[in-house]
Amino acid sequence: MDIKTLVLALALGNLSLCAALFFFEYESRKSLTISTWAVAKQAQAAAWFLLYFRGVLPDVLTGPLANVLLFAGMALDAGALWEAAGRPGWRRLLLPALAGASFVYLGCHVLDVEPGARAAAGFLIVSGFFLAGVGALALAWRSGTMLRRYLVVTMVALSVVVAGRGLLAALLPEGWSWVSAVMLQGVGFGALYLMMLTNAFGFLLLSREKLQSELARLEVVDALTDVPNRRGFYQALAPWMALARRPGMPTAMIILNLDQFKRVNDSYGHQVGDTVLRAMVDVCKKQLRDSDLMGRLGGAEFAIQLPRTSQADAAMVAERIRAAIEAMQVRAEKAIISLTASMGVTVIRADDSTVTLFKRVDGALQAAMLAGANRVVEAPDATFAEVEPL
């Protein structure tokens, strides 16, 4: 494949990505990351088409303008990766760097710098912006997947090849005895072609990986309150159920239910009800340790797991939570909402199953609600429960 065919392949490859991104989520609003990446591909496609028509179009279009567009596309590629990494402040660094790089490259044309040096500057600038995108991926190296690590290593290697091609263009414009200038140029453009493929497939695969990770998270996390849902809470509870069979400090369990929460939804709407639930969870978390776990079982019912906590201590924690919820005031559009909560408390016993544990603590919760609500009730102690009445 000759150089001109490679340039055409780069142009058509980026153009096809532009078309695919146009129809991607066509009927919904695209994320800022996807939008940035789409603009990057448009700039790169325009740049490679201009370079393909070198000798046909005016030199000012196929030289300075084409390369500045290419720099902009590579910089925006890096920006999309930083956006995906949760760093929206990338513009404060990359955009001034793009302006500076473009100024230097255009200055080389105005001053009629030797072509080999101009080519070296162009390859080094492209390599630098590509490495800037690698930096975004490398942020999560330790916790990253094998796909992310593969992309980091591959992109660094391609950046080195492109930068090396630029340096050799300046130092050895004619090549050397066994490597011709044409071969060096082919290596450089081949690396640029692989850059396009790696960036395109890498970005799409990482987006898919992120989506799958979010879907997996939502299977065990309540989207509204950002605490484990019933399934997630039961999964986290399982090892503590096993530990209850060993001697040591017990694990306590609290079941919490907001009193008359249905009245809030009926009177103010579900949106206000959601706000109340989020505020209540925040209030509860302030009363808990980092090792404690709160989960949503459904509706306005929540469970709290307290590792290495006796029933008496758990009752004290529950009372503290009850008082905090009672003092909580949530501002709605037309009112200030105050609520109370009823709670049942128990500890995990050695012979407990999930069914018996929740049946016992739910019984304590029902007793609290029947006794007038806004109170904490402890489940009967195991030793007391085993005594037969006379």
From TrEMBL:
This protein's GO CC annotations: plasma membrane
Heme recorded as keyword: no
Entry keyword Transmembrane: yes
Keywords in alphabetical order: Membrane, Transmembrane, Transmembrane helix
Alphabetical list of SMART domains matching this protein: GGDEF (SM00267)
Transmembrane segments: 6-24, 65-82, 94-113, 119-141, 150-172, 178-206
GO biological process: cell adhesion involved in single-species biofilm formation; negative regulation of bacterial-type flagellum-dependent cell motility
Domain called GGDEF: residue spans: 249-381
Name assigned to this protein: diguanylate cyclase
Organism, scientific name: Pseudoduganella namucuonensis
